[in-house]
Amino acid sequence: MKIGILTFHCADNYGAVLQTYGLQEYLKGFGHNVYVINYCPQSIVDYYKAFQWEWLPNRTAMYNLWLLIRAVWILPIRLKRKRRFRQFVNSHINLSSRDMVFADLSYDAFIFGSDQIWNPNLTAGLDDIYFGRFPAAKGKKLIAYAASAGSCKNLLPYANVLQSLILNFHAISVRERSLADYLQKITNNTIYVTVDPVLLAGRSIYSKLAHKKISRKPYLLSFQLVYNELQSLIAKEIAKEKGLNVIELASLESLKQRKLLVAESPESFLSLFLEASYVVTSSFHGTVFAILFEKDFNTVSLDAMQSERMSDLLRSLNLYDRLVIDGNQPTTASIDFNVVNKRLDELRASSQMFIEEALR
Q1: SS3 breakdown of the chain: % helix, strand, coil, rounded to 5?
Q2: 324 close to 330: Cβ distance less than 8 angstroms
Q3: Which of 197, 223, 231, 294 is the most exposed place for a label (fewest CB within 10 A)?
Q4: Rounded-to-integer distance, Cα 305 and Cα 19, Å
């Protein structure tokens, strides 16, 4: 079959591009002709622009000048990160033609997801494209795979329109149990829960992309989207307990933390996880890769909406005790990954069955 994937492939975000790659490779493994539809929502493009600055009329001239200086100072870092992400996408993602993105009628099916494609806070409201409302999708199989809204609370203002939008789908699966329960209340369709494409694709898909050894000394990897002092403190305490060095990685730069790694390529990201002795993260996909590479880890919840996504994943694998939330003491004992992988194999099998049945 010729299959088109619609997701957040154009975000300069490790989880976004790597889950895109995972789903693409998984489908290719079954002989399908797979393209990632080269649709880039303007809201995502704007969020990841290298140079971001505008005059804030409600702030002082001095403050606006400081913001301008900061934007100029971090521009080389952002350009380097953007270049490395574009290199990864161009080398590893099979993109459709931008000119034919919604006019190519040759596709047999479209798969929407994973990632937070149904989060209206990221797409400036619910984006019709991620619900199959474009010419090339008419009359074709439309499948939602491990789609996410970030939190069910994000969808509350859109309940009425959402009900009609999801009627377009031939089969629907989501990433979080909480979202499945919410959608089940507003539709007669069966809503399935499936694993993130990273966990679906499996370890070997990503290990081959890891291309260099980062450190000769054992280290704890602390990965977060935006630098946070609480997580940094937790990571340093655990590293001291375990006798490890600390490497800190983030998706956005910090003027205060000059040693923070902020412009690593997706391949380096994978290398950092693969070689780590321990992981502390506040990222959903950071948690996913820690599990995939069988690393002892802790997930730090920094807000309620974030913890909803983390909680669902960790509960499904009986790893909820690894969540650091509301100031509780981190559990740092070694994880029995024989038990975790047995449960993961069950979830992966049901996810594979969902895709096979949906495409049949």
Answers
A1: 45, 15, 40
A2: yes
A3: 294
A4: 21
Dihedrals φ, ψ of 201, to 5°?
Answer: -65, -40
Task: Give dist(CA 304, CA 300) in Å, integer.
Answer: 11
Whole-number Å distance between alpha carbons of 153 and 299: 22
Structure tokens given for 160: 């009425």
Diameter of the chain by CA atoms?
Answer: 62
Asked whether the whole model's pTM tops 0.70, one would answer yes
Q: Please calculate the CA angle 6-10-16 and round it to the nearest 5 degrees.
A: 75
Return the residue matching tokens 């959608």.
183
Q: Supply 96's token pair.
A: 């459709």
Q: What is the dihedral of CA 244, 16, 2, 354, to 10 degrees?
A: 70
pLDDT by residue, tens only, the chain of 360 residues: 999 999 999 999 999 999 999 999 999 999 999 999 999 999 999 999 999 999 999 999 999 999 999 999 889 999 999 999 999 999 999 999 887 888 888 999 999 988 999 999 999 999 999 999 999 999 999 999 999 998 899 999 998 899 899 988 999 999 999 999 999 988 878 999 999 999 999 999 999 998 777 777 999 999 998 888 889 999 999 999 999 999 999 988 876 776 788 889 999 999 999 999 999 999 999 999 999 999 999 999 877 666 778 888 999 999 999 999 877 888 999 999 999 999 999 999 999 999 999 998
Single-letter amino acid, residue 154: N
Q: Are strands 141-147 and 109-112 parallel, antiparallel or unpaired?
A: parallel
* Helix extents (H) in the chain: 14-28, 42-47, 61-92, 159-165, 177-185, 197-201, 203-207, 229-242, 266-275, 284-292, 304-316, 337-359
Asked whether the CA dihedral 339, 345, 348, 354 is positive or negative, the reply is: negative
